[in-house]
Amino acid sequence: xxxxxxxxxxxxxxxxxxxxxxxxxxxxxxxxxxxxxxxxxxxxxxxxxxxxxxxxxxxxxxxxxxxxxxxxxxxxxxxxxxxxxxxxxxxxxxxxxxxxxxxxxxxxxxxxxxxxxxxxxxxxxxxxxxxxxxxxxxxxxxxxxxxxxxxxxxxxxxxxxxxxxxxxxxxxxxxxxxxxxxxxxxxxxxxxxxxxxxxxxxxxxxxxxxxxxxxxxxxxxxxxxxxxxxxxxxxxxxxxxxxxxxxxxxxxxxxxxxxxxxxxxxxxxxxxxxxxxxxxxxxxxxxxxxxxxxxxxxxxxxxxxxxxxxxxxxxxxxxxxxxxxxxxxxxxxxxxxxxxxxxxxxxxxxxxxxxxxxxxxxxxxxxxxxxxxxxxxxxxxxxxxxxxxxxxxxx
Length: 395
Ligand code: NAI
Description:
The protein is an alpha/beta fold. 40% of the residues lie in helices and 16% in strands. It has 12 helices and 13 strands. It has helices spanning 17-32, 51-64, 85-99, 114-128, 185-195, 198-209, 238-256, 283-296, 303-315, 337-349, 355-358, 361-371; strands at 7-8, 11-12, 42-46, 67-72, 104-108, 131-136, 142-144, 151-153, 163-169, 174-180, 213-223, 263-268, 328-329. The strands form 4 sheets. Strands 5-4-3-6-11-12-13 form a 7-stranded parallel sheet, sandwiched between helices. It has a two-stranded antiparallel ribbon with strand order 1-2. It is globular and about 60 Å long. Bound molecules: 1,4-dihydronicotinamide adenine dinucleotide. The site of 1,4-dihydronicotinamide adenine dinucleotide (NAI) has 29 residues, from α2, β4 and β11.
């Protein structure tokens, strides 16, 4: 099949296996070029196929030599449809891990369900005995509650009053003013149910009850704060309420892990182009400016650089530095005054006409296409490619 990008809204419905392979290999190469991490040995990553979860899995595996089990929700190729990017990413990841003799197995299914939790516990018992790190990196628009069967949909909306600001259609570079109406109370509660801490807590309880957490086990989930310009839509909005809940849940889990001498952290990561962040209005325009300013100041990082720094400098450093709320801050460079002051200055000047000059919209677009395996200079996109690929551990 010849595979080209096809879009439905901000979602690309096709993925290129060779382009995805190239991107994963680049991340593996990055980690292998760094110092080895004295880190975890047996790791469970929930949300392991794209974005921050995939970068965490690569870092654990190729940076610390860990055995990894990855859980995700992806689709294999069928008929005329390609597989999803996360499927192809995992094919490459598992093949590369096998070449280095690193254990890697994956479970494809709904991580919110009791069945997938049980399947994961059975696999840990069978192959690893216990895990010493659990990374929770899910980003999903929906969750079916495992106890009640209720279906929740998350929304990205402000709370209290409507919010207007600039946003960009990065396909054509057009900047427009967008107004987003405030969420209803029900929408707020649904978003907390999907993206808050309950499912992370369910995972940790299930793993602990099953006896598959090692003494001293750590767990980490990812959150975001961000600048003033995105505050009404992000941190003060529905998703921010869910992130508050996630951050509170870290304290509950920490208390429950006490008997194991374990620890639970939330890491506040940098804003980056991922499938999840491209769905949020206004944020892509902010990220285009952020990339421009951070690249100019030599501070730019992608998912893999962030995750290497998380493991090497924070989670497995002699001490794990945290802020007054107990959170790990990997957004320290993003939030530097010299970065944010420059972004505020540029934000007010942005128009469709000067977008390419003032921002890194090209960098944003390129990274977005690369999420799906496109826009890689070494891949021939006019050539036929076999889109049916098997993840070695999934039969
Ligand atoms: P992503 O969209 O790249 O990855 C989401 C992962 O969750 C994928 O592996 C996907 O397969 C998996 N997933 C989704 N629904 C699932 C389900 N029902 N069952 C099993 N797996 C499922 O997202 P990204 O951006 O890496 O986000 C991960 C976390 O990092 C989120 O909590 C997000 O809020 C947080 N974060 C993201 C930032 C960003 O700028 N992208 C910044 C700071 C934090």
